[in-house]
Amino acid sequence: MLWFRKTLLFFFLTVCIPMLTISSIYLFTFSQELQSRYSSSLSMETDRLTDQLDALMKPIERLSWQLTFSSSLDNLLLRTDKANMYDYLKLQTAMRDQASIGGFIQSLYVYFGVSGKVITTDEGLYALQDFFDRSIIQQNQPSGSYQIRNLAFDNFGNRTKEESSVITFQQELPLAGQVKLGRMIINIDLNRFEKALRSVNKSDSGSYFLIDTNTGRVFLKEGDFSGEHGDWHLTNWKRYHKMSDFVTLNGERHFTAYRSINDSWLLVKTLPDLSYRSEFAAKRKSLMLTDLILLLIGFGFAFLFSFIVYSPWRRIFKQYGSHFMPSSPSRIYDESALFGEGVRRLLTENSRIYTTMEQMSPLLRRKLVYDLLNGYAGSDSSIPQMLKTHGIEFPEERYMIGVASYEPGDLKPNEEPESLNLLLFSIIETAFAGLYYTIGTWVEDGRYAFILNVGTETDEKDLNGRLRAECQRINIMLEEQMGITVRFAFSRLLDKVSGISQSYTATRRLLNYRALYYKAEVLFDSEVEASRKHPVFPVSLQHLLVRHVLKGDRSGAEETLELFFTQYIDNGKFPPAKMQETMMVLMGALMNELLKEGYDLEDMEDLPFLFWQDCSDRQELKNFLHARIGRLIDRMNPQEPPKSGNDYVVRTIAIIEQRYMDNLTIADLAGELGLTPNYISRLFKQETGVPPLDYLTRYRINKAKELMLFSKHLTLKEISQQVGYPDVHSFIRFFKKYESVTPGTFRKLEMKP
């Protein structure tokens, strides 16, 4: 009977424990999914409300841009001493017409810093000391900022009994100039703005309010909120910078979403958790009822199975038990001994499964790191547990993301990419692991990502220096052994694992500007973003470059480009995005100036200046621009083949153009003409300015370029043989010497649409 009770308890627990475990996991998962669903819904509504706010503010910013670029305003800013009342009247009319387009603009001012005058849309022209709203100008707020304030006067400067709330937008003038000569102030009626926002916001779930992040003032709200709530939410957002949160305030729990608007406002949208609790309680009640029914059914089945299992063994032991028992047993035997062999087999199988899982553990860890970097790892709260489950435990509290990549074109012809990727990944991870706890993954061909766990006592500047030295050591070793240079980029320091995905995205973005850096240069997001200074467009360099191109002065144009690199790129003072934009504008301005000079650029469409982003590093970018400027000069100043009155020189040129595909030498040319090699070399250079072999090489390169452009099915080897180079490596070397790029790069750039 003891065995029966044990069996009954075993079967009952076999049913009960998994069922309760599954129910608990299901209830927990349901709770997480329900919270995620409510949070996602709230975030979507918040994003929609943010888009609506942006849509309402876009016309204001467009209005400021339209007025800023008007010729009348530019003339008044630059030539204030020569302006008359008619000029100001034209500007006021334009301001009034533009302001009337928006539905909620209350007033608009323009302040002229040189003359100290202010013009308004409704009243007229004031001296600054007499202007009724001069305080807003004297505050000198940042350009592009929004400010919430109260006005105690109307558009005509008359004091009112009640203050009106407005949103004030400021813009320094002019936008493109280095010296700011004035300021534009646009006042937006807060009540009309709020009505416009409510008219486009049709959502009836939750509440929202807007906070001025500078003053902490709640100036727009939908629902019952106090200043205490606004202060709490503003403090919470500034401390943690979370996009969403689940907070408890005054005993009430809310789903909360935060969005920053123009770095001036904080949008807070909340949703009480009453619906969540009601839905969760209903699910829990139904699950408990289901569990109770299943427990009763499980107990019945456990009793039945126990009886079925126990009966045969009871009869066996009753009949044959004496044959298996020792004559003087030292311990008590029961039917459970019959299951010993089965249990031992299960243990053996379990050991095999465990061994297999241990072998797969590194792959699973790499996959988890890949998901964590790309934002596929689930909710932020579950990430620490997932890391611990896979055996990843970070000993320190700060993190840094590192990305390493190399150009596939650096591979040797007989090198297998897969083997090289595994080798490089192992070398880099081992090197980083010698400094900090490191776990990495292979994100794609030629690119790897690593999570470095650093201590709190490490200064970020010292950390960057240590990592830079280690990366340089790795590159020296790889260059010596494999001829490969690896690019490295690192993120800012992180205090939470949840920010890894965003930091990886920002770090990977640094490598998109590879054309502005040297291959071996180690990039740090904290150092690149530290320079927020905007470059002033190089107008003087633009004019100088245009002048050299028009004159056909190749060396002068190259010196101008070198000067541009020295002043704008080599010093690293400006953000890469701004330098990329400046370079595009410079090349576009060059082509535009050539159009103004009357040059037909339709024949120059195969000069793809905008494809410089495909360059692998700064040196290749320099070579690319030098080559493009050189070809542009050649197109604008075409040169005829050298003509000479000397019959020997003319015959030499004819022989070269007829037999350039042969392995011609000076001796061959001299033999054809019946002269000595020294005499024909000296005579040819005296008449044409270049030695005969240089002329032959240039002619072969030009023929090769024609074949690459018009016979795209030919390989480089076939082209090299057709133009007189039996060895493709010699062809590549001479082509790069004369064109500053390899034949493969030339063909790739020319074939782009």
TrEMBL record:
Q: Keywords on this record?
A: DNA-binding, Membrane, Transcription, Transcription regulation, Transmembrane, Transmembrane helix
Which residue numbers delimit the HTH araC/xylS-type domain? Answer: 650-749
Q: Which Pfam families match?
A: HTH_18
Q: Transmembrane region positions?
A: 6-28, 292-313
Q: Name one GO molecular function term.
A: DNA-binding transcription factor activity
Q: Which PROSITE patterns match?
A: HTH_ARAC_FAMILY_1 (PS00041), HTH_ARAC_FAMILY_2 (PS01124)
The domain of life for this entry's organism is: Bacteria
PANTHER family from the UniProt entry: ARAC-FAMILY TRANSCRIPTIONAL REGULATOR, HTH-TYPE TRANSCRIPTIONAL ACTIVATOR RHAS
Name under which the protein is recorded: AraC family transcriptional regulator
Origin organism is Paenibacillus aurantius
Traced from the root, the source organism's taxonomic lineage reads: Bacteria, Bacillati, Bacillota, Bacilli, Bacillales
